[in-house]
Amino acid sequence: MTNAFHCLHVQVHVKPEAEAIEAFRAATLANAAGSLAEPGVVRFDFFQDQDDRARFVLVEVYRDVDAHAAHRTTPHYQTWRAAVDGLMAEPRVLRRFDAVFPASVDDAW
Fold first, then answer.
1. How much is the pTM?
2. Which pLDDT does position 43 carry in this prediction?
3. How far apart (Å, rounded) are the C-alpha atoms in residues 36 and 14?
4. If 80 and its partner were Cys, which of 31, 33, 69, 93 is the partner (CB 3.0–4.6 Å)?
5. What is the signed CA dihedral for 9, 82, 48, 45, rounded to 10 degrees?
6. pLDDT at residue 9 greater than cutoff 70
7. pLDDT given for residue 27 in this prediction
8. Please, what CATH class does the domain formed by 16-98 belong to?
């Protein structure tokens, strides 16, 4: 499965203050836009919980593990990390997934 996508779901719980929520949203929107410009990024989706506005989910899909590693070295990711680290109510939860469908970069998304 060497062509399998590298998929991440990142659950984020931000401090409940409106300033923290808005700062997280702004920083993450900038990171998402920069991420989509990377050649190894297939998708970068950003969701906010409807019932608890301080909870977010990032759904990131990379062409492979190396593309994710490259993402973590980009200036926009480094800027995001610095901006959001103090906004967290608790540590982020990262889960890695193998894509079942589409299963590879050769399949249509």
1. 0.90
2. 93
3. 23
4. 31
5. -50
6. yes
7. 98
8. alpha beta
Tokens 């409106």 sit on residue: 18
Residue/partner pairs of 86-89 with CB below 8 Å, 24 or more apart:
87/14, 87/15, 87/20, 87/23, 87/24, 87/27, 88/12, 88/13, 88/14, 88/15, 89/13, 89/14, 89/15, 89/16, 89/54
Amino acid code (one letter) for 51: D
Return the axis-axis angle of helices 18-36 and 75-84, rounded to nearest 10°.
170
The residue type of 44 is F
Structure tokens of 91? 């540590």
Strands (E), 4-53: 6-13, 41-48
Name the one residue in this structure whose structure tokens are 């993402």.
71
Question: In the chain, what are the domain boundaries?
Answer: 16-98
